[in-house]
Amino acid sequence: MRGxxxxxxxxxxxxxxxxxQQKVVNVYNWSDxxxxxxxxxxxxETGIKVIYDTYDSNETLETKLLAGKTDYDVVVPSATFxxxxxxxxxxxxxxxxxxxxxxxLWPEVMARLAAYxxxxxxxxxxxxxxxxxxxxxxxxxxxxxxxxxxxxxxVFKPENLRxxxxxxxxxxxxxxxxxTAALKFIGLNPDSKRPDDIHRAADTLLxxxxxxxxxxxxxxxxxxxNGDICLAVGWAGDSFQARNRAREAANGVDINYVIxxxxxxxxxxxxxxxxxxxxxxxxxxxxxxxxxxxxxxxxTATTSFANGVLASKPFIEKxxxxxxxxxxxxxxxxxxxxxxxxDQATQKIVTREWTRVKTGR
Length: 361
Ligand code: N2P
What we know:
Strand content: 5-15%
Bound molecules: pentane-1,5-diamine
Oligomer: single chain
Structural class: alpha/beta
Order of helices and strands: HEHEHEHHEHHHEHHEHEHEEHHEHHH
Number of domains: 2
CATH architecture of the largest domain: 3-Layer(aba) Sandwich
Helix content: 40-55%
CATH superfamily of the largest domain: Periplasmic binding protein-like II
Radius of gyration: 22 Å
CATH topology of the largest domain: D-Maltodextrin-Binding Protein, domain 2
CATH class of the largest domain: Alpha Beta
Number of helices: 17
């Protein structure tokens, strides 16, 4: 008996280094941006453990990527940031033979992404979406005298936003999303890089700032769902997550989201592998798993964001697929605007002006 025990122990001693070396992938993604069960299923199928960390701003991701080695294997930059980061040498080119599910990608979406990543060499689209206005249907009705929320005027005219001051307004803590909307509202090019224009966008915001409770890019989901706020400039999927959370809580809060009639920013969030990623094979396995049509559909079902896999459409529930604020129809798509990457000098001005908006200095 003792002999067998000793033998078993010896076997364990030999086997344990293999256990300690379990394969892992380090993923850094936006918060509220995946079905958590997808991560479990990936590990079940591949044996690769996912070490998962989240952020809620491109600036946070960029600061880490530019500071040097991160240990991340998969990150999810928005297209404009991706473009600047590609130029900074942050990413490795894809070996497309390692991604069999590339075939299901959405050609139009990848073509839009190619404006930032020519030839689609460094990234594939994960989700795409608009930045618009989320609001509490009943509280907005009372404050708008029955008129619909449909215009950036609700947000950027002080006399309008003022009416929402008492029930709470949040805005994304993201100059790209907010300055471009303000530029559109004042009739300037949302993609303007002119310092004067950026300054005017900041001034527009400073006029409505007294009615903004917080600039934050993830807390608005729960704040809307709980009834703590009644209006947010936010992202489409997050806004519908707020609606779903309120419905689950059956708390009487009804949230809607609108793409303003003047147009809205369309953004693309994309999967990329940093140049110094320690687990490249696992990164490919993870990205390929996310591109599997049934998996992409599950992530859309959980997050209410449109994904970049055209082949996932048959797996997506009709109420999401037919929601034009999530999957805009062709005519609405034409009304959306896109922006290009800021060079470093412009980005500095944007950061300075954004700080002026948030701190008043
Ligand atoms: C996820 C938000 C992702 C959209 N909650 C902004 N990149």
